[in-house]
């Protein structure tokens, strides 16, 4: 039977080759794709608003008579059309216009237009509004419908997408969309059928409750939201299923490498580390690829666990790749691992985007020949020219920085043939449990829920930046007493270049004000070698104070550093602050974290810094963050691109997370439904999941 999936968009009137190509950029090829290109919001154009009632920022329809239309020269030439109705005036301003438009909008013409109110020279203005001259009568209140607003790409405008969707809807009667949800689920949650839901969101009937639609809470929208969340969950489970359909090299614990490593450590593993190690050891010895996430708070000792997993792999004669999200962190892992493994006779290789020429060739050769048993680096490890000899374990540190796609790219580099590498993902816990379960549905989870003994709590102090002098003095005292300190400059949303400049300026200023101290500086724009040297000097105690951008956020480990100053903490997320603070409190000394904010703080800002002051438990802080900021922000989807939804909104729709998580495994046994749902919602993006 023909389905909407098989009907090309070119059957629609007005869709030629050029438009089809534009639509393809939106992932739209078939009529079904088009119908799943869903409005992400609505505009209420059902009522004409009196001009006298408009406020800045309103998005509204107004109607009036043209009083005058002038060409205005100003900084940019524009056409300024003044409309009036019985209550007031409004200016429509066009920077691009043609002669016909200008003639049409002449004095006395009746115009209805739709736009967003902005303040202008001549009163309130609409820039480039959609407008109609001599408009037809407005539909009566009972007939008016909301106007859907669609995601766009270059080369296509709202009205075009709207009319294409309306055309596509006419095919729905003959070719209904397959309903992949089991009837039992639809009944349980009282959800409308899929065709009905799709038709409604593209073309909401006049009697549909406006407020529900505007908020995305209409049952038709919720049906689609749930389906989308379910499709994402299924795609993760499917990735897992596909990976585990392949075999892995079973890495039986043989030899004495782990024991020799543990004997050389100056401490004993915590109970939690041992527990997690048992789980990993068990996974690795299976002929099935391990897919394990190790969550553990900052400082809980994930690196040692990673090293033990690496040793089990090396002991079985295979290779390990360890990947970290930043150059500094990767470099530090490299130094740590080198210190631990070289004495055991193990060779390591280092690779980042900045390793070029001869050193790169040498590293690649050592990896390809198997001479290097461990390769450590940044995402440069994904690159095509990296060939492994016998890769059997991939360790990814701080995976929330990577997208799921990158993680999957590495597994293609497995032992060769049909064998897939084992995967160990390590993350601090910036994600509350419920969200984590859904974001990491493809992974088994272990938690290191215990800090090494003897950790002193970090005292956190929140003060305004008007007390900068006191803070500087505190740094001086700590360093004179033999401690070391970090000073973190933040400037989010500005360019990296600006961040680095700010850090440079701060370092200069501090060096001047603290002439007794040796001040160092690290930021993202330094060469890898410079960064490594600076970090090394700080680690060796040659520098007292390290001024840094947030590049030091993750992983950096210098136990003698017991004071960290964070400027403008109000600009950072709680998880990030918690990570930064975790740079101290690693040694014997009492440690301090000074959060030096720029007043005034919002209510929200106050609550967040207070949460940080009151707790040192990453889970508690993450939960608090969730409470204060909502899940969308906490997951930081925009930055990581980890999960991008068409309709679903973690905040509004969190009620679905749990039911969807429970539902997904039950559906997995029905590949039609699973594939149908994934293709429908993730479309081209599912290709990464192909094996
Ligand atoms: P994270 O989980 O944040 O990556 P690390 O692995 O960097 O933590 O460990 C933090 C510090 O704690 C390091 O200096 C590490 O050597 C030390 N450490 C790890 N495990 C233990 C332990 N069981 N006892 C004492 N110190 C430990
Ligand atoms: Mg770490």
| Gross CATH architecture of the largest domain | 3-Layer(aba) Sandwich
- Largest sheet geometry: 7 strands, mixed
Strand order of the largest sheet: 6-7-4-3-2-5-8
CA gyration radius, whole angstroms: 30 Å
Class inferred from helices and paired strands? alpha/beta
**First-to-last CA distance:** 28 Å
CATH class of the largest domain: Alpha Beta
Judging from the principal axes of the Cα atoms, what is the shape? globular
Bound molecules: adenosine-5'-diphosphate, magnesium ion
Strand tally is 22
CATH superfamily of the largest domain: P-loop containing nucleotide triphosphate hydrolases
Description:
InterPro entries: ATP-dep_DNA_helicase_RecG, DEAD/DEAH_box_helicase_dom, Helicase_ATP-bd, Helicase_C-like, NA-bd_OB-fold, P-loop_NTPase, RecG/Mfd, RecG_dom3_C. Belongs to the helicase family. RecG subfamily. It comes from Marinobacter confluentis. This is ATP-dependent DNA helicase RecG. Its EC number is 5.6.2.4. The protein is of the alpha/beta class and about 700 residues long. It has four domains: about 5-40 and about 150-215, no CATH class; about 45-140, Nucleic acid-binding proteins (OB fold (Dihydrolipoamide Acetyltransferase, E2P), Beta Barrel), CATH 2.40.50.140; about 255-450, 3-Layer(aba) Sandwich (Rossmann fold); about 460-615, 3-Layer(aba) Sandwich (Rossmann fold). The protein is built from 25 helices and 22 strands. It has a seven-stranded mixed beta sheet, with no helix packed on it. β14 (about 390-395), α14 (about 405-410) and β15 (about 420-425) form a beta-alpha-beta unit. α8 (about 220-245) packs across α25. It is globular. The structure holds adenosine-5'-diphosphate and magnesium ion.
């Amino acid at each position: 039977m023909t389905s909407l999936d098989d009907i090309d968009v070119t059957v629609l009137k007005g869709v030629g080759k050029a438009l089809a190509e534009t639509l393809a950029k939106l992932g739209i090829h078939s009529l079904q794709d088009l119908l799943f290109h869903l409005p992400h919001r609505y505009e209420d154009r059902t009522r004409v608003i009196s001009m006298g009632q408009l406020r800045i920022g309103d998005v509204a329809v107004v109607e009036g008579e043209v009083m005058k239309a002038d060409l205005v020269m100003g900084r940019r030439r524009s056409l300024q059309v003044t409309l009036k109705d019985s209550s007031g005036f409004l200016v429509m301003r066009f920077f691009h216009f043609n002669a016909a438009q200008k003639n049409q909008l002449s004095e006395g013409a009746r115009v209805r237009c739709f736009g967003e109110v902005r303040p202008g020279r001549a009163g309130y203005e609409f820039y480039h509004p959609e407008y109609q001259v001599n408009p037809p009568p407005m539909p009566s209140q009972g007939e008016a419908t909301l106007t859907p607003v669609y995601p766009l790409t270059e080369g296509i405008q709202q009205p075009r997408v709207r009319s294409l969707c309306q055309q596509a809807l006419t095919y729905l009667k003959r070719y209904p969309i397959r309903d992949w949800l089991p009837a039992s689920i639809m009944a349980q949650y009282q959800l409308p059928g899929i065709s009905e839901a799709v038709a409604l969101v593209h073309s909401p009937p006049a009697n549909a409750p406006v407020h529900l639609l505007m908020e995305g809470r209409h049952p038709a929208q919720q049906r689609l939201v749930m389906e989308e969340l379910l499709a994402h969950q299924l795609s993760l489970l499917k990735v897992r299923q596909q990976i585990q359909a392949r075999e892995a090299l079973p890495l039986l614990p043989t030899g004495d490498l782990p024991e020799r490593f543990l004997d050389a450590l100056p401490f004993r593993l915590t109970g939690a580390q041992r527990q997690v190690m048992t789980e990993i050891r068990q996974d690795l010895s299976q002929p099935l690829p391990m897919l394990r996430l190790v969550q553990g708070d900052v400082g809980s000792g994930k690196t040692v666990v990673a090293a033990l997993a690496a040793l089990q792999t090396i002991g079985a004669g295979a290779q390990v790749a360890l990947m970290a999200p930043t150059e500094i962190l990767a470099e530090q892992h490299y130094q740590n691992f080198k210190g631990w493994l070289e004495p055991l006779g193990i060779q390591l290789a280092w690779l980042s985007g900045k390793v070029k020429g001869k050193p790169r060739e040498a590293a690649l050769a050592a990896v390809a020949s198997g001479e290097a048993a461990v390769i450590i680096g940044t995402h440069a490890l994904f690159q095509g020219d990296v060939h492994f000899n016998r890769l059997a374990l991939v360790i990814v540190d701080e995976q929330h920085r990577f997208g799921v796609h990158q993680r999957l790219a590495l597994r293609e580099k497995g032992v060769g043939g049909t064998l897939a590498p084992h995967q160990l993902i390590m993350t601090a816990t910036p994600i509350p449990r419920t969200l984590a379960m859904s974001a990491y549905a493809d992974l088994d989870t272990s938690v290191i829920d215990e800090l090494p003994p003897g950790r002193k709590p970090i005292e956190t102090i929140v003060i305004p930046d008007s007390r900068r002098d006191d803070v500087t003095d505190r740094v001086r005292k700590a360093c004179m007493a033999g401690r070391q300190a970090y000073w973190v400059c933040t400037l989010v949303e500005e360019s990296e270049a600006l961040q680095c400049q700010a850090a440079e300026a701060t370092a200069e200023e501090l060096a001047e004000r603290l002439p007794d101290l040796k001040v160092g500086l690290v930021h993202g724009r330094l060469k890898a070698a410079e960064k490594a040297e600076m970090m090394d000097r700080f680690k060796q105690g040659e520098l007292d104070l390290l001024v840094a951008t947030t590049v030091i956020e993750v992983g950096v480990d210098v136990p003698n550093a017991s004071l960290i100053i964070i400027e403008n903490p109000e600009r950072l997320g709680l998880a990030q602050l918690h990570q930064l603070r975790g740079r101290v409190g690693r040694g014997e000394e009492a440690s301090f974290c000074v959060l030096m904010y720029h007043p005034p703080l919002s209510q929200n800002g106050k609550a967040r810094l207070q949460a940080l002051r009151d707790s040192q438990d990453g889970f508690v802080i993450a939960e608090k963050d969730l409470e204060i900021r909502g899940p969308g922000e906490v997951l930081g989807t925009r930055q990581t691109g980890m999960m991008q939804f068409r309709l679903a909104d973690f905040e509004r729709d969190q009620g679905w997370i749990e039911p969807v998580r429970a539902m997904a495994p039950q559906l997995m046994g029905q590949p039609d439904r699973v594939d149908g749902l994934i293709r429908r919602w993730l479309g081209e993006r599912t290709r990464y999941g192909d094996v």
